[in-house]
Every structure is written in C-alpha cells, then in structure tokens.
Amino acid sequence: MGIAASARSPVQWPGLDGAAERRFSLVVLGDVRIEVRASLSTVRFTDLTSDRLAYAPARAVVSGTAVNLARRATGYFRRVAVLGKVGDDDFTPVIRRELRRLGVHDLLGVEHGMPNGVAVMLRDRPDGDGRGVRLLIAEEDAPDRRLAEADVRRAAPGIRRADALFTDGYALLAPVSRGALHAAARTAREAGTAVVFDLVPHDIDARLPLVDVLPLLSLADVVISEAPTLARLLGRPAPVGGAEMRELLPALDRAVPGRPLWLLRFGASSLERVLAHQRERLLMEYASGYGEGVERTGFGDRLAAGELYWWLSSR
C-alpha cells in the first residue's frame, strides 16, 4: 500500500480543492440523473402539518452518483470517464453536453424509448447543529437500474486502461445493475485497475443483507464508508468515538477477505473524521475538513476524489 502512519493526510495533500498536477485516469460507474435541488431556509419538515408553499432557491442539475464524483475528480485526474445508463428523451443531449463541459469522457449506454431518471433533493431549515435534514427522492424505475453486463463489455477497454474504477452501492439495489457492477469490478481486477467501492446508500444495511454486499467488498482495493453504516451491516452497534471505531476494526478484518484500504468516516454527522485502516494496521486518523460553515452537498465527493488521488500517488 505504501502509506506510512506518519504520512500527510489527503486533506493536507493534495487537499480538497484539486491537485497541482493532474495525474491518473479514472472510470466512474454509477447513476446519471436530472436532479432538482432546493434548500428551505424557513421550514422544518417536522413542523409541516398541512400543504405549504415555500419560496426558496431551486435549480435543476445533471447529477447522480457518477456525475457528482466525476465533477470533483476532474480537479485531480488527467482523464475521467463516466459509465452509466441514460434514457432517450430531451434531457439526454443536456446530459452529454454537461459531461463535455466538465471534460468528462462519455461511456454512457442508452435505454431507447425510456425517459431519463429524475431525483429531487430537499434540505430543510438547519437546526441547532447547523445541518438540517435532507430528503432525497429518487425515481425508482430509472435507466441506471438497467445498466447491464453488455454495457460493461462495451466500456471494458476504458476500464482496463484506467488506473482506478470508482463504484458505489446503488448499483447493488437492482438485479441487472448488480450484475453489471460485479462484471466491471472483475474486469478491473483482471487488468490491474484498482477497484474503489463507496458503500452507499447510507441505509444499505436496511436494504440488503451482508451476503449481497460482501462480494463487492471482497473485490475492492479501497472501501469508503460511514462507520455507522458498515457497523450495522456487520450486525454491530454504531460507533460514536475513536475508541469504538477501533473496536470495529477486528470485526471488519474477520468479515471481509483480502486487504482493502478502509476509509471510515465518523463524527457527529459521520463526516468530520476519517480512520484509514488496512488489515490489522491502523494507518492514520485525520480530520476531513468538514465542519461549521462548510457546504455539505458535494463534500463527500470532494473528499473521496482527493483521497483516491492520495492513495494512487502512494502506491
């Protein structure tokens, strides 16, 4: 792995705002959607007892897990590509234009005759700790759930040439995309391309048993997860502080084969601190840079992009 316990953290170098020298190539496999976002500065969800009209900043963006990560990754990586499935409607050229604008290579498959997936993200008025609650509504029958092994085969040359393949757990939630995710990870491993797995959604433990997640965890070189999510998936109580985090590590090593690098987020909102661990070795613990006054939307992608560049640079 090459990371010493005394090494600088990824927040120190390359930092959260991009790298001075863009290196490496990255393929990001995940959702591609149109998302409507709004933040409600005067409304708490718990106060709503009837219909309400609220005026607030709102916008529609090209989004989804793959696009969100790729958008941040372009500040670090020389080449970034998105592998996903989109629909066939008026939003399709909008999606492709946005990828071109970002400088992201398009490895998209098209589900002909099907509309693009839509998501709605609402965040209510911040409470005492300044966070507020996020409500994310994702269209259930979206094209990304039909990303197939055939789409992966078409993109296989790009996966094999890449330094890393970044994936996430949303693809595990549908049988067809689950098969595609496994195929992409196997293709990467056979070619020596690093496999990075982001363990989302954060309630994946309520949606899938460990046996359905374990094959991807076992294929991964790097796993990113909120510590409470991973603990619940293993049937353990959610850790709160650093001491409880360290108690989780032996259970992790017993449950998952191989030697993945675990980047475990924890803290008051499961994002303030990160513990880096690799089988029987605590590599380092560091502050993520998230705190009061920092925009939460997109922060996890900023952090993950920098961490991946940091890890690839250390290999």
TrEMBL record:
Ranges where the Carbohydrate kinase PfkB domain occurs: 64-249
Record-listed E.C. numbers: 2.7.1.-
Keywords: Kinase, Transferase
Family annotation (Pfam families): PfkB
Superkingdom classification of source: Bacteria
A molecular function GO annotation: kinase activity
Root EC class: transferase
Gene3D superfamilies associated with the record: 3.40.1190.20
Matching InterPro entries: PfkB_dom, Ribokinase-like
Name this polypeptide is given: Carbohydrate kinase family protein
Organism encoding this protein: Actinomadura yumaensis
